[in-house]
Amino acid sequence: MKTLIIIKREYLTRVKKKSFILLTLLIPILMIGLMGGSAYLTTNTISSKSIAIYNEKSTIEEVFTSTKNIDYTLLDVRPSTDEIHSLIKDGTYDAYLYIPDFNIHKETQLELLTHGEIGIEFEQRIFHAINDKVIALKMEEAGISSAKLSEIEKKTIKINAINTEGKSSNSEISLIIGYISGIVLYFFMLFYGMNVMSSVAEEKTNRIAEIIVSSVRPFQLMLGKIIGVALVGLTQFLIWAILLIGISIVLGISGLAGQADISQELLSSGQEMPINQEMIENIAQIISQVNWLHITLWFIFYFLGGYFLYAALFAAVGSLVNENAQEGQQYTIPITIPIILGFLIMTSTMQDPNNNIAVFGSIFPMTSPIVMMARIPYGVPTWQLLLSASLLIIGFIATTWLAAKIYRTGILMYGKKINFKELGRWIWKS
Amino acid sequence: MEDKIIEVINLKKHFSAHKAVDDISFSIPKGKIFGLLGPNGAGKSTLLRMITGINYPDEGQVLFDGKAFDTRIHHQRLGYMPEERGLYKKMKTGEQIIYLAQLKGLNKQEAVDATQYWFDRLGMHSWWDKKVEDLSKGMSQKLQFVSTVVHNPDLLILDEPFSGLDPVNASILKDEIFRLAEEEGKTIIFSTHRMEQVEEICDTIVLINLGKKILGGEVDAIKQNFKKHLFEISFDKTLQDLPANIFIIEKKENSLIYKLEENQNPNNILKFWIDKDYTILNYQEILPSLNEIFIELVQGTDSVARAFV
Q: Which site among A215, A219, A408, A411 would you substitute to test the B interface, given the most B Cβ atoms closer than 10 Å to its Cβ?
């Protein structure tokens, strides 16, 4: 009952803060912005270059059609070395490519004259442009027309991986979902764990703790705080889920089959999108194949389990802080290391979600929330899930028990640096 | 025998090698103002934390109304104001007191009513929506006091309640403490190192030093026990005659401080001056202050008391 009052206060004071509302709305915007921004940067930051070309043989002229980023100038007369050097130095051209009359069946080295570095991106483009043409020429020689070639090159096979339980899986989408869930869990455990820690440290340093524990047991105070903060986290997820569903309905990339029409309508309603209808349908189909309910439920479980496990430890650390909060940093290292380890193991699931380390990491309670979440979208054997889940429950009960012992003594202990030997005494003595 | 609200029996608490509380026993009568005295570091706060159930004793026990301390029953019956004050700085004052009252077991409505009662009583209503961090030090001390009494506890434990208070607020608080004890029958434990405060407030005291109880009982009885048979007298004219059997401590033109032997009758001395036709304007026995008693007690022992402020 008293714990409920504490939960309510911890929850409300956080949720009512302007910073909570701001962060909740800003984080998705920031993430989308970051993803969009980096995508934009990789495609659009290349400045336009002009390249002069002298071609001895005119067969591969047509390759060089100018694009937004590369402006090709075909020279009629081959420039002298001095001439082209000065043209490049004064910036008329960024590079000069001389294409000799070469045998397409022999290895040939073409020289690209530049002033300073031109960048691998341009080199690659030019390389591909010429190489594609050379291959086409060879094909023609072999009697294959370009129409035939594009027919040959068309990828007509698609892989639909189906696991033994008869569910079709999609590696890319699993990877993305798993990765995002893992990262979100990683940040949440750290972020909310730290939040619990600083809040405990604050109660200790401003001495309200002593007053509260004359009304409730220290364990109730600790638990109330941990649960209150967990609810704040869930609220944040809920808001994001609502936002996500809202946005995906608007964008029409919803997993719900019925929404496909809307997406088509949206597409045909004018705005030109670089995605065709088939792709949208594909994505929609893939998304609808993902077992969202399964993933969401496990996500909530691992969020709560992992959070409780670490929040209790963070609370214990907060209770050790003396006058300044920086002091807590040294104690957080033993806690943050397994979290970071979990994150590292998670990245290994990208190669193979069932590698030994990943399987171990997804069962060991200190790392399981992050690692298991990355594995779940691929499908995990039931026994592993159950083992991992029960170990996590045991794990958080154990850390809560441990933390309660430290916390009870720690919040009332002032002006004394506490070493690990002393901590051991607190744990085993009572 | 009068009712005891608290009985402390052979209480011990060690921190590593340091004995914070070393075998202390005493009891606190119901409805009285009880002083827990001792210099800084004597173990007062540790003792109070065990009485409030915050810390567990290593040995011995605390009985509340004759029963072992049980947080579920007794938390609600006591109000504790620790030496180091603390409130949530970012929380509004009204909200905060309501919250603390609820933690003591009051329901929402009771908590609101009690908070309003105390805010009215101490003229704090205009602070209701202010955050604690915006209050002055005196204001937040008053608020702290309200947080201690809001749930109408039977036992109030006040650790250095007047420290940092200006004289006006200190006297308001003192009046409230007296009123709670006398009119509402509350028991008050008043812990301090300022002995002179205790003499005017407390009925009974316990004096501790370095974790040990060195003295306990009613203030008046203690003073009688430690009295030095000193008397102060003043006359209407210049003092010229002195009785032979007194020990002069201090002599002024028309007043005198003197000491008698324990078996001497003070009236005989007075008679000496009356017979000599002196008019006695003032006559009283000088009782020792608790501070003097304390210093006398700890002097000559191995334990060196830290200086009193």
A: A215
Distance CA B261, CA B284 (A): 16
The residue among A341, A286, A264, A289 whose CA lies nearest residue A310 is: A341
**What is the helix (H) or strand (E) element at residue B82, kind and residue range?**
none
Query: How many CB atoms sit inside 10 A of residue A327's CB?
Result: 15
Answer yes or no: pTM beyond 0.80: no
For chain A, the domains span 47-153, 171-265+289-429
What CATH number is given for A47-153 in this structure?
3.40.190.10
Q: Do B105 and A207 touch (CB under 8 A)?
A: no
The per-residue b/e assignment along A18-53, b for 16 or more CB within 10 angstroms, e otherwise, is eebeeebeeeeeeeeeeeeeeeeeeeeeeeebebbb
DSSP-assigned states of every residue in A307-373: HHHHHHHHHHHHHH--SSGGGHHHHHHHHHHHHHHHHHHHHHTTT-TT-HHHHHHHHSTTTHHHHHH
Closest to A214 (Cβ–Cβ): which among B16, B52, B87?
B52
Q: pLDDT tens, B172-205?
A: 889 999 999 999 999 999 998 888 878 888 889 9
CA distance B98 to chain A (A): 11
A5 and B90 in contact by Cβ < 8 A? no
Question: Which helix (H) or strand (E) covers residue B52, if one does?
Answer: none
Q: Is A107 helix (H, G, I), strand (E, B) or coil?
A: coil
Question: pLDDT for B50-101, tens place per residue?
Answer: 898 888 888 898 999 888 888 788 888 999 998 888 889 889 999 999 999 9
Partner residue facing A211 (CB), from B80, B89, B105: B80
Give A131-149 as a DSSP string: HHHHHHHHHHHTT--HHHH
Residue of B nearest to A219 (CA): B54
A137 vs B284: CA distance, rounded Å: 128
- Chain B residue numbers with beta carbons less than 8 Å from the beta carbon of A210 are 49, 54, 80, 82, 84, 86
Task: Select from A211, A409, A430 the residue whose CB has the most chain B CBs within 10 Å, as the one to mutate to test that interface.
Answer: A211
